[in-house]
Amino acid sequence: MTSSTPASPAGTTIRPRERDAILQALRAGVVPRVGQQHVQVGRADEVKALLTDIDRIADGGSAIRLAIGEYGSGKTFFLHLVRSIAMERKLVTVHADLAPDRRLHATGGQARSLYAELMRNIATRAKPDGGAMGSIVERFITAALTEARESGTTPDAVIRGRLTSLSELTGGYDFAEVIGAYWRGHDTGNEQLKSDAVRWLRGEFSTRTDARAALGVRTIVDDATFYDQLKLLARFVVMAGFSGLLVSLDEMVNLYKLANTQARNANYEQILRILNDSLQGTAAHLGFVLGGTPDFLLDTRRGLYSYAALQSRLAENTYATNGLVDHSGPVLRLANLSPEDFYLLLTRLRHVFAGGDPTSYLVPDDALTAFMTHCSSRIGDAYFRTPRTTIKEFVNLLAVLEQNPGTDWAPLVGAVNLVTESNPDLAPLPDDDGAAQAGANAGFAGQAGPEAESHAAGLASASDDDDLATFKL
Ligand SMILES: Nc1ncnc2c1ncn2[C@@H]1O[C@H](COP(=O)(O)OP(=O)(O)OP(=O)(O)O)[C@@H](O)[C@H]1O
Ligand SMILES: [Mg+2]
């Protein structure tokens, strides 16, 4: 097993602050905010599929993918990875987790709240940590000024020309007015006007009266305009010199958990709208990637499959079973990590723990194999499918060895106590009856088999594609 895995990235040093941040996140079971490239393994095929989408978005098209994976299988990690790639390719990205008060469709402000959260996280390559709205608008102005200078026209004329094409889209009139207000603020040195315009774009005005007083527009970004607003933003970022907009939504299971059928269906209808636009290619320069559990997709009572129009559009390719994969449809099954991936992951963790210095490795290769064998005998093959617990345990083990020099690793590995992870999102729901829950669980369990097999094929083709297999951020 070890001979076929690439060596850990020896020679890469890891700064102490980055090391600590990575380890702290992994021990808490969450995705590190920085330095993911030091631990990333696998996902070559999935990344390749998303690269096609990103190129299509940059080319003026649209895309939607549902990254479906079991609890702790690496959905959030994958979404992070996709965002970094998108930013590298000059896309603007926005991302948010869905929550009871953050939805795609609502009447009580929850969709605006999702929009505002997305805009707080708006990021570009130069501002990868979010808060980039101001600099994007500023770039739009700079681009227009340059064009005006080069073509010998006035900035006003250039900007008006660009905004006209926005005004023609749904909700575009006020959007264009707001950008116009920003330009006036820029031109006259009115900082208040500029910041009000940015606040409007960020969905932070909660009443029309305030927006009218500040900017002279009649509307605000609200629940009803959530999606139209994203379409406008996608056009706008292209005018500012970016390649398009990628919207990343995680924790989609929150829609599945909505107890009210009508509210749930209204949200699914919004997904259908996005999906239709994307499949028909009508939303220019705009892409979506959604992270969710198999239940969110497959459950026929509360999941996307409960909505007939979505079920027919999202039905997986019936030929893609028994080791065959199809990454051309909207549903992207996050394959399980393979034992090879997992071994590599352990070498990476050891490397990070040692601050990138191979002479400081706390355990030899034998310990990695022993750890895997131990996990496998404890909880079966599930240990590498859902890496969260195993990563935590391994990092804890290294922490003990570090703080107690001279301790023998072997008995410690033997004492690692693992339990199979359970998904808190599948806890009984308030209005659930027993039958529904049993159905949900059956759907979940039924997926494990084919998914494990399909990964084998994924790996085989991944090794054919060297530059993607070793993709680095
Ligand atoms: N490809 C990978 N390479 C290295 N580490 C990974 C990979 N995928 C996931 N991890 C790590 O595994 C842990 C769990 O991953 P993540 O949080 O992405 O799972 P998830 O599917 O989003 O879980 P949940 O269902 O709870 O949302 C994290 O610590 C993450 O850093
Ligand atoms: Mg997650």
Automatic annotation (TrEMBL):
<protein>
    <submittedName>
        <fullName>ATP-binding protein</fullName>
    </submittedName>
</protein>
<feature type="compositionally biased region" description="Low complexity">
    <location>
        <begin position="424"/>
        <end position="462"/>
    </location>
</feature>
<keyword id="KW-0547">Nucleotide-binding</keyword>
<dbReference type="InterPro" id="IPR021228">
    <property type="entry name" value="BrxD"/>
</dbReference>
<dbReference type="Pfam" id="PF10923">
    <property type="entry name" value="BrxC_BrxD"/>
</dbReference>
<dbReference type="GO" id="GO:0005524">
    <property type="term" value="F:ATP binding"/>
</dbReference>
<keyword id="KW-0067">ATP-binding</keyword>
<feature type="region of interest" description="Disordered">
    <location>
        <begin position="424"/>
        <end position="473"/>
    </location>
</feature>
<feature type="compositionally biased region" description="Acidic residues">
    <location>
        <begin position="463"/>
        <end position="473"/>
    </location>
</feature>
